[in-house]
Amino acid sequence: MQTETNVLEKTIQKDLTGKVALVTGAARGIGRVIVHRLAGRGASVVISDLLADAAGAVAEELKSEGCSALALAGDVSSADSVEETVNKTVEAFGSLDVLVNNAGITKDGLLFRMSEADWDEVLAVNLKGVFLATKAAARVMAQRRWGRIVNISSVVGLMGNAGQANYAASKAGVVGFTKACAKELAGRNITVNAVAPGYIQTEMTEKLPERAKEAFLSAIPLGRAGTAEDVAAAVGFLVSDEAGYITGQVLQIDGGLLM
Predict the structure, then answer these.
(1) Among 137, 25, 150, which residue's Cα sits nearest to residue 88?
(2) Of these four, 18, 107, 111, 178, which has the most CB atoms within 10 Å of its CB?
(3) Which of 93, 119, 167, 216 is catalytic?
């Protein structure tokens, strides 16, 4: 006989059945893990990324596991590209219920050496991209009067970090944008939240100098770097029915780095 806990776990694991989720920047890293988690919970998933071949490979992985998946080449900094991605998502699956704005880049450098081009590119992808995708997806969600939007910010957007003025500004902007949209869209039963990862083991952080890695680890009370799975678990919760009364919040996934 199944226990109440086992029944609950199975319900949560498949609580996205019938939902359609679009994840940007999902060909690798945190985005790839997020899309796998949502697909495993029953959602039909769209893997959007500039890296078309890599996105296609992720879609094939998911299909081999019995999941419903579609790969789309997309540039979140382009309004036309974002509109096309959302339109193709709806054409393929009939809806769009969950949006995870994960696409992001870094162009690090000290303020005095940072070029205007590096500033513009980071803001275009990390902040403008969130605006464009949210605007396009929210129109679809509003018609169905149900939606879940999760924006991937960063603790750097909350605390700042030397050499990352552009990245910190973009991620801080995501926090403000999240709260404004949460207030605007609540009446349509659309929740908007942000996840702010700390030091997470990814291809991006692997490129950091060893001294920088050690400095991060020494400042984390839990004494370890986070994983993409840690972030994906938070996203999975925020898009679930269990989080239906949570909106406009920033959930830090940082091992206590910023308190």
Answers:
(1) 137
(2) 178
(3) 167
